[in-house]
């Protein structure tokens, strides 16, 4: 009697097309013949896993995937001590190759994903995996896998959390710039500093609509963020002249898409210079707010705020820019007319 693997390839392809991601991944583990057959299938012949979010975490001597199909359907695959746990089943691979197993599974997960992800998230913690694989080798292997995949990953949001800047470019360059809307980059310990000029040259950066940089940015060129509709960036400091450039960019709605911008500043002593450039601010509580009319708009207003937050042991200055409705301006606030200069 012929075994199932000896069935015509067309029949096997039809069977796999009716299965979901979990069933195919389980089938792949049955034997080498099934694994090889599935691995050799063209991506178009695999079912769509339809995940909303994929989260990859290397943390505390383990690797894990979080796969969200919907708010009520969530799958976790974990790798530790040379074993993989998935859907209540545990397989042992030995310490030496568990990282390769995890990366290979990630490749399979991405091959099954046909629809655009809402979020693709990576967390690279500073830990050592079993078998002597340092955490910094994980993004390198992922980058090699993404290159081998031979197609960019489609996600609306890319989130990378790390204390080492190198994984950011290794991952960012393999994300489809046509699908990407938001880039979220952050430091796990709040101490990382990065020069972002190389990121700003990528198509992914240029075509995204929003950027969040939770680490300290060292060489920000404000012209590199004017195409975003929203941004949130941490800096050592910023000058009044740079803020004035941004004020003009916001006010001239024909030259920018910016609607919201937030700077977290470690050092800031430009208040007097801002007042000299813009005139008096409206004082509400401990914060200062400037209101400016927008070019060619009777309904919109530019609101620039400055306030300080005490984080237990240190203070942080914030400067925010928001395009708001004129109706939301307090009656007692001073509104400055539009001025191209």
UniProtKB/TrEMBL annotation:
Residue span(s) of domain F-box: 1-54
Any single biological process term in GO: innate immune response
Record-linked InterPro entries: DUF38/FTH_CAE_spp, F-box-like_dom_sf, F-box_dom, FB224
Pfam (any one): FTH
Protein name per UniProt: F-box domain-containing protein
